[in-house]
Amino acid sequence: MGKRINRQSVVTLLGVLLVYAIVQGSILMDILPPFIALTLIQVCIFIILSTSLNLINGITGQFSIGHAGFMAIGAYMAAIVVVKFQGPLMLALLAGALVSALAGFLIGLPTLRLKGDYLAIATLGFGEIVRIIFLNMEYVGGASGFSVPKTITWTWAFWLMVISVIIIRNFIYSTHGRACISIRENEIAADVMGINTTKYKIMAFTIGAFFAGLAGGIYANYLYIIQPLTFSFLKSFDILVMVVLGGLGSLTGSILGAVVMTVVSAALSGWPEWRLVITAILLIVMMIFRPKGLLGTKEFSLSFLGKKGEKNASSKD
């Protein structure tokens, strides 16, 4: 078991380093087209968003569709620190993430007593309230947008994404994460067994909001300008689709869903009037043939290679 885990960890680390080295080398040699560079940064941002939402929706079993609201808080807070107070980038990102986490905690206290559709409506309302507030706030440009200097690079976006995924993964496999999974499977049984269900739901909600705010800060400091319209319900829906596509409850599924949806969206950018239609058709087909998502609740690992090899060997015998 230990050898398999060590082997998988080494292969994963080598893969991460290889991806970073290839992209960074292409950037340094100036052979990477700007559009592809933008798409890669967006992949990093959406991986953070999808894995953090998966912690709420997939791991804890809640139904939140207000993730764009936390992303907006993180984006505007990070932009304010950089533009208004000339603060360093790391401080801006941390401030945006912490304020988003605080908002998640305050919103989670009353709303997480709700369940199902009622929780979804409450979080949707929260996201729209945040958007309308920024839309009417002249301090951050209102509807015209807020200009932010571009300070995020591939290195920043990639390693912040890697760190975020590692932290979320470690939380999922901790005792706290197991408590969240028990709530997803049967909240009443978890409560009877002595698990403080409200505490763990708020904990997952707060951590998810923290990383959504971090993704918003990365977004704001890369794309020069942020506008309230960017953080509408459609953004929350896009993130939710990534989680469902990859598989609710699967961390690697959320990563895969974010990569697939971002790349498909970028590939269809030349047909803006057909992009949403084609994406919807792909999702309908996906739900027919893979209703639990690409990976379901399973995690992608190297173990299936060994099992497949063993199966082939036994069949030959």
Automatic annotation (TrEMBL):
Keywords: Cell membrane, Membrane, Transmembrane, Transmembrane helix. It comes from the Bacteria. The chain crosses the membrane at residues 35-56, 63-83, 89-109, 116-134, 154-172, 202-227, 239-264, 276-295. It is a multi-pass membrane protein. Coiled coil: none annotated. The keyword Secreted does not apply. It is found in: Cell membrane. Its main location: membrane. It holds the Pfam family BPD_transp_2. This is Branched-chain amino acid ABC transporter permease. It comes from Desulfosporosinus nitroreducens.
